[in-house]
Amino acid sequence: MPQPNPSANHPDRASAQCATQQVVTANEQLIHRRRARSTGSHLAVEAARPSLFSDGPAPRLLDLAIKAQESKGELSLDDEIRRYIRAVRGNWIANWNCSVHTASGVLELTADSVEHGEGWTVAFLSEFRKRAERAAGDVDPSEYLRMLAETVRILDREPSPEYGELPMAGWEFQLTFPYLFGFDAILMDEGDQEFADTVRSAVTNEHPYCAERAAAYTTEAQRALVLFPGPDGLKPRLSWATRDRLQELIATVNEHMQREHS
């Protein structure tokens, strides 16, 4: 397409040269801005890469793959990935922050980095590559990471399995019920104190800033009652967390909140 002639509308040579220079300068500025944005984006990606190898979905999924690989058949990698997907889907914040689909893309990015890593990023890749090799066995680690990413995408198309179909793993339990898991240690420290008194102390010790802890206790307890509605509740994982105790915990926390904060 022919470019417009900026001098065509200016009768004298000086005005025409000035108009042309203004167009050239504007174009140069546009090119510089585009280059700066491109360079900035590249630098941002490069700066973010170290964290891709030390935190987030890629090392989490790789750790699950290593556990499955080294379990000598006791653990299924597909089932561990299904648990990962279930855990992310079951937490709105986790799903909003990094969906399973995004996690598969992160795995592919780490695969490219493992395959083509060079320059200053090599130092950050070393440990991650070793972990990838542990999971991959005889397979090239970059190819294994791509295979893992594809497996995540395929399993993400399935509905999440019920807990009766695929029992909750230990790591999944701690992610789903972190406050109840921590309360187990409080119960052991309190010794012979009545259960309701222990709950009351755990909440009032944070008073008047107890809303977050109180909400977390009752939320997790109510979720446990819904997910595991039998009389044993979470007893297979937490010896004290029967249905009656979970209901007592909720009632005790609610009583404190109504008395002290309503």
Unreliable spans are 1-11, 19-24, 27-48
**N- and C-termini, Cα separation:** 72 Å
**Outline:** elongated
Into which percent range does the helicity of residues fall?
over 70%
| SS strand fraction | under 5%
> What is the rounded Rg?
28 Å
Number of helices: 12
Biggest sheet architecture: none
Beta-strand segment tally: 0
Determine the structural class based on helices, strands and strand pairing. Answer: mainly alpha
**Helix and strand string, N-terminal first?**
HHHHHHHHHHHH
The averaged pLDDT comes out at 82
Care to describe what's here?
The chain has 262 residues and is mainly alpha-helical. Helices cover 72% and strands 0% of the residues. It contains twelve helices and no strands. It has helices at residues 13-54, 57-70, 77-89, 92-97, 100-116, 122-136, 141-156, 170-176, 178-190, 195-204, 211-227, 243-261. α2 (57-70) packs antiparallel against α3 and α6 packs across α7. The chain is elongated, with a radius of gyration of 28 Å.
